[in-house]
Specification:
This protein is α+β, with helices and mostly antiparallel strands. Helix 2 crosses helix 4 and helix 16 (about 575-585) runs parallel beside helix 18 (about 610-630).
C-alpha cells in the first residue's frame, strides 16, 4: 500500500468509498454548515480509531451507523494544526462490540456535523463588488492539492478515490454547480427556509478528493457543444461562449488519441479574476480563468490541457503528490499530441520550445540543486503548494517525449493508451509506470533509459530534447529578438517596420519577448523598451500572455515607466502564473519597486485567492531578506 506523506489519515486501517454532503452556504458568516456522511470499510482488524484530514473545521458531533442502522455517538479529538492541517481522531472503541465487530471488510457510515472556517484556504468568498456583475456574492473552491480538508473532514489523499453525492442549499437568487452531474435542473425550495434553494449532485465515477469542487453565484450558461455548456456570470457569458466554442473539437480529438470520454458532461466555468490558476480539471465542470478571454480564441489551448486531464489525472491519478508529474507531465504530453492533430507537428514542437523557457525559469528560481527540481521530490510533512512549479509539467513532458523517441512514435502512443485504459480509476506511482514500461518493452529497452537521473536527480533534464524539435515556428521570433538586442547594445538605429512582428501569431509574439530576456537577462535599454512598446503597440495589448511577457521585459530592463501598467495588471486578476513573477520582478526594481510591490499587495491581498496570497507573501518576504543581506 502507498503511504501518502501529505495526508494524516490512517488509510491502512479504514478506507472511505463514498460520501454524501448536506451543506448550507452562509454568505453572511462565510461558512459552509451541515454534515458529511462517509461510507467506509475496515482494512485492518478492529482499529482503535479512524483519523481524518481537516484544517480549521469546527466539528460538533460524530455518529457511527452500522449496516443494520444501529448507531452510536463517538468521541473525537482534533489535533494541533501543522503543515498538513489538524488530524481528527475518531475513537471507535465505543462501537465495539455492540455496533461493530471490527472485522476486515465490515462496512459502516460516519456522520460528521461541522462548519467550515471563514478563513479556509480552499474556499474563496467574494463580495458582490469583487464579481463582474457587482450585484451578488460568489463562492468557489480550489482543493488541489490538499485543501479539500479545509471544507470537508475526509481522507484527503489522491491514493484513495471516492464517489460522492451532495445537497447544497444556497440563497434563492443564486445557482450551485459541482464537479458532478446535477440531479435537479433548478434548485428546489428548501423546506426549512424559503429564501434558500437546494441543488443536488451525483458523481458516480471514483475521484480523489482534490477534484471535489463547488461554485455558487449568479450564473448563466450557453450550450457550445453536445456535451458542453459554458457557465459564467451573465455579463461575461457571450464573450466566454465565443472563446470556448471549439471545446467539442478538442474533446473529439482527445477521444481519438486515447479512449472514449467517461464523465458524461464536459462543462466549463469561467470564474471571476481572482481564480489563481489558468484552469482546474474538476470532472464534469472545468474551472478556467477569465485571463483566457483574449477575444480571438488564441489562448484556449488551456482547455486542451484541462480536457486531457479527463484521462491523465482524473481517470489515472498520482497516488501521492510526490508523483505529481504522472498527472501534469502526462497531461502536457497529451495536450501537445492534440495540438499536432489539429495544427500539425510544428505546433507541438513549438509548445515544447515555449515550455522549456518556463522550465528554465522554475529551476533558476529554486536553484539547480534544490530537491523540488527533481521530477519525483520528497514531500514528507510538506504542503505540496510549496513545491508547485512548471517542473512536473515541462520536465515530465520532456521525459515522455524522450521515451517516445527511444521506442518509436506509434509504439509509444499504443503504450500510452494501454497505460490509461489499464489503470483507469486507479491511483498510481512512478514505480508502477516504470514496471508497465518494462513489461511492455522489455528489460533491454528499459535499461537504455537513465531512469534515476530523469526521475530523482535535481536540476535540468539529463537529455536536451530541444535539438530534436522542429523550430520553424520559433526561428523568426528568435532571430528578431537577436537583432533587437544587437542594435540596442550597439546603439544602432532600431527597426521602424512593425510588419514582421504583426505577422507572428500571439504565442510567437510571446516567444519574441521572452527570447529578448533569454538572450539578455537584464533586458535592454529603457529607450529600446520604449521603442518596442510604441512600434508594436504593446502598452495597449489585451492578450494576457503577451501582456505578461511585455511587462516582464520592461521590469527586467528596470523601466519604471511600466510600473503603473504592472500594478494595473496584477490588481485586475489573481492568476499565479502572472501575479507571482510580476510581484517578484517589481520588488527587485530597487527601493521604489519593492515599496510599490508591498503597497499594492497590502491593498489587493484580500482580493487574491488564499493560496495566491500565501505564496506572494512568501515571495516578498524572501526578496526582503535578500535586500537586507545585500545592504
Amino acid at each position: 500500500m502507498t503511504t501518502d506523506p501529505c495526508s494524516l489519515a490512517n488509510l491502512g486501517d479504514v478506507k472511505c468509498s463514498h460520501f454524501h454532503l448536506s451543506l448550507k452556504a452562509d454568505f453572511s458568516e462565510k461558512k459552509l454548515c451541515g454534515c458529511v456522511i462517509h461510507s467506509a470499510k475496515f482494512v485492518s482488524s478492529k482499529p482503535a480509531k479512524m483519523i481524518l484530514d481537516s484544517r480549521g473545521i469546527s466539528i460538533s458531533k460524530i455518529i457511527l451507523t452500522n449496516e443494520d442502522k444501529k448507531e452510536c455517538e463517538l468521541n473525537f479529538s482534533v489535533g494541533e494544526e501543522g503543515p498538513l492541517g489538524n488530524p481528527v481522531s475518531v475513537d471507535l472503541t465505543a462501537a465495539y462490540p455492540s455496533v461493530l465487530t471490527g472485522n476486515v471488510g465490515e462496512a459502516f457510515q460516519i456522520q460528521i456535523f461541522y462548519h467550515s472556517n471563514p478563513e479556509s484556504i480552499g474556499i474563496q468568498w467574494l463580495e458582490a463588488s469583487q464579481t463582474d456583475g457587482g450585484e451578488f456574492p460568489y463562492l468557489f473552491t480550489q482543493f488541489q492539492a490538499i485543501h479539500c480538508r479545509t471544507a470537508i473532514p475526509c481522507q484527503d489523499s489522491p491514493s484513495n478515490k471516492v464517489t460522492y453525492s451532495a445537497d447544497i442549499s444556497v440563497p434563492k437568487e443564486l445557482t450551485a454547480l459541482m464537479s458532478a452531474i446535477g440531479t435537479t435542473e433548478k434548485g428546489t425550495v428548501c423546506t426549512s427556509d424559503n429564501d434558500y434553494h437546494c441543488f443536488s449532485f451525483e458523481q458516480k465515477v471514483p475521484i480523489p478528493t482534490y477534484l471535489v469542487a463547488l461554485v455558487i453565484g449568479k450564473l448563466a450558461c450557453k450550450q457550445v457543444g453536445p456535451r458542453t455548456n459554458v457557465w459564467t456570470e451573465p455579463i461575461t457569458l457571450e464573450r466566454a461562449a465565443y472563446e470556448f466554442e471549439k471545446t467539442n473539437e478538442y474533446l473529439l480529438e482527445s477521444e481519438k488519441f486515447i479512449s472514449p470520454y467517461e464523465w458524461g458532461r464536459y462543462d466549463l466555468l469561467c470564474l471571476p479574476g481572482s481564480f489563481p490558476y489558468g484552469g482546474m480539471e474538476n470532472p464534469c465542470l472545468t474551472f478556467v480563468t477569465p485571463t483566457l478571454l483574449a477575444g480571438d480564441q488564441s489562448l484556449t489551448t488551456v482547455v486542451c490541457h484541462e480536457i486531457a486531464h479527463s484521462w491523465t489525472g482524473n481517470l489515472v491519478t498520482n497516488a501521492t503528490w510526490e508523483h505529481f508529474w504522472l498527472n501534469e507531465g502526462f497531461t502536457v504530453f497529451t495536450e501537445r499530441k492534440i495540438y499536432a492533430r489539429l495544427g500539425g507537428e510544428p505546433e507541438r514542437h513549438f509548445d515544447y520550445i515555449l515550455g522549456n523557457n518556463d522550465l528554465i525559469n522554475s529551476i533558476k528560481l529554486f536553484g539547480e540543486d534544490h530537491p523540488f527540481t527533481a521530477l519525483v521530490p520528497k514531500l514528507e510533512n510538506i504542503d505540496p503548494d510549496e513545491a508547485f512549479s512548471s517542473i512536473p509539467y515541462e520536465k515530465g513532458a520532456q521525459f515522455l517525449f524522450h521515451l517516445e523517441g527511444k521506442v518509436g512514435v506509434e509504439e509509444f502512443e499504443n503504450f500510452f493508451r494501454n497505460w490509461i485504459v489499464t489503470n483507469r480509476f486507479k491511483s498510481v506511482t512512478t514505480e508502477d509506470f516504470q514496471n508497465f514500461f518494462k513489461e511492455t518493452f522489455g528489460q533491454e529497452k528499459f535499461d537504455e533509459i537513465d531512469w534515476n537521473t530523469w526521475l530523482y536527480a535535481p536540476g535540468f533534464p539529463p537529455v536536451d530534447i530541444l535539438p530534436l524539435m522542429d523550430d520553424s515556428l520559433a526561428v523568426e521570433a528568435r532571430e528578431m529578438a537577436s537583432l533587437w538586442i544587437k542594435k540596442d547594445k550597439e546603439k544602432e538605429d532600431l527597426p521602424t517596420d512593425a510588419s514582421a512582428f504583426l505577422k507572428l501569431n500571439p504565442m510567437q509574439k510571446v516567444y519574441f519577448l521572452e527570447q529578448i530576456l533569454a538572450q539578455s537577462p537584464t533586458g535592454i535599454s529603457c529607450e529600446g523598451v520604449a521603442h518596442i512598446g510604441k512600434l508594436f503597440e504593446l502598452n495597449n495589448v489585451k492578450n494576457s500572455e503577451i501582456r505578461m511577457a511585455w511587462l516582464s521585459l520592461c521590469l527586467a530592463s528596470s523601466d519604471q515607466s511600466c510600473f503603473e501598467q504592472t500594478v494595473e495588471f496584477i490588481s485586475e486578476q489573481g492568476r499565479m502564473k502572472f501575479v507571482r513573477p510580476l510581484y517578484r520582478a517589481l520588488a527587485k526594481c530597487g527601493a521604489d519597486g519593492f515599496a510599490l510591490a508591498s503597497e499594492t499587495f497590502a491593498k489587493k491581498k484580500n482580493y487574491y485567492h488564499n493560496i495566491a496570497t500565501k505564496m506572494i507573501e512568501q515571495d516578498l518576504a524572501k526578496i526582503s531578506k535578500e535586500l537586507e543581506n545585500n545592504k
